[in-house]
Amino acid sequence: MVDVLASDYHTGSLARAAVAIAAAEVIPIAAAVNMLSTNPCRAIGSPLTGALVPGQSADLVAVRTEPIVSVVATWSCGKQVSGPSLG
């Protein structure tokens, strides 16, 4: 059983892994995404939740699933730091 997916080298592979797990109907996409966010925080006892919570800053990732899974933009502390403007 795997509860956490992590990477220190190619972070884009995490999005691909979550989508692949959900596409294979192993678990729903929300649970697969938790393996990259909420579950790692819990596993190390972090005070951060790894979840979107009112009043807390958040880092977000926009992922395209077609034609291939890829990260297209990222935000840190509410500011877009990579990718084309989506807004």
Given the structure, what is the number of helices?
A: 3
Structural class, from helix and strand content?
alpha+beta
Q: Which overall shape is indicated by the principal axes computed on the Cα atoms?
A: globular
Q: Uncertain runs with pLDDT below 50, 5 residues or more?
A: none
SSE pattern: HHHEEE
Main sheet makeup: 3 strands, antiparallel
Whole-number mean pLDDT:
88
Helix share, percent:
25-40%
Number of strand elements? 3
Strand content of the residues, in percent? 15-25%
Supply Rg: 13 Å
Pfam families: Amidohydro_1
Protein name: Amidohydrolase-related domain-containing protein
Q: Keyphrases for this structure?
A:
3 strands; 3 helices; single chain; 20% strand; 28% helix; 3-stranded antiparallel beta sheet; 87 residues; alpha+beta
Describe this structure in words.
The structure is a single chain. The protein has 87 residues and is of the alpha+beta class. The protein is 28% helix and 20% strand. It contains three helices and three strands. A three-stranded antiparallel β-sheet has the order 1-2-3. The longest helix has 12 residues, at 12-23. The chain is globular and about 35 Å long. The relative contact order is 0.15.
